[in-house]
Amino acid sequence: MKEEQKKSVAMNKKWVKIGLRCFITLLGIYVALFAIRFFQLNFTGKQIWTADSVPRNLVPNLDSEFPDGVEDWENYRVPLQIVDLNGDLEQEFIIYTWSMIRVYRLNSDGRWQYAAGVGFVEKFVYLPFTLWGYPMVLLLDKAGRFDGFFQKID
After folding, report:
1. What is the CA radius of gyration of the chain?
2. Is the peptide bond before 67 cis (omega within 30 degrees of 0)?
3. What's the predicted TM-score (pTM) here?
4. 3 in helix, strand or coil?
5. Mean pLDDT (whole number) for 134-152
6. Of 31, 137, 27, nearest to 86 (Cα)?
7. What string of DSSP letters covers 27-95?
8. What secondary structure letter does DSSP report for 17?
9. Which residue from 89, 102, 86 is spatially nearest to 41, judged by alpha carbons?
10. Among residues 52, 113, 41, which one has the least CA distance to residue 83?
């Protein structure tokens, strides 16, 4: 009887080790994918374009007066990012204004259409907790806001 108990205990330990290895492997894969996606979202595709290179209806901070009310509007610098923001293997066109993120995507007619956004963002980092869907935005400078440090792009 003792020999059977020893075999049973040994078998249980074996399965615990196998389960632990599987868990550590899956966690390692998730952390690696998180790191790759984090790098992609926060460090790739960022560019500065001039206003005449951006579709006119997308140029931030000039919406109401554009272009006649702004002197030398062609040289207005627009920070943007072209990246797969939500993991659907299609590139989004992201414009950063002084206080918000606006995401545009191509519609079926081949025109840029508003898709998502976040307001009241100054200094931030994308946190891709999921591999698809829009990432969370971690606000680095709360500056008197009451809505928390995390915002979902929607």
Report:
1. 24
2. yes
3. 0.77
4. helix
5. 73
6. 137
7. HHHHHHHHHHHHHHHHHSSEEEEEGGGS-GGG-TT-TTTTTTTSTTGGG-EEEEEEE-SSSSSS-EEEE
8. H
9. 86
10. 41
For every residue of 38-57, DSSP letters joined together read HHHHHHSSEEEEEGGGS-GG
- 10 Å Cβ neighbour count for 35? 11
Most confident of the following: 41-45, 97-101, 136-140? 41-45
Q: Which of 70, 67, 80, 75 is nearest to 51 (CA)?
A: 75
Q: What share of the chain is helix, strand, coil (3-state, %, to 5)?
A: 35, 30, 40
What are the backbone angles phi and psi of residue 76, rounded to the nearest 5°? -60, 130
- Other C-beta atoms closer than 10 Å to the C-beta of 115 total 19
CA distance 10 to 33: 35
- Length of the chain counted residue by residue: 154
- The pLDDT-based confidence of 33 (bands split at 50, 70, 90) is very high
Tokens of 2: 């003792």
When pLDDT is cut at 50, 70 and 90, the band that residue 38 belongs to is very high
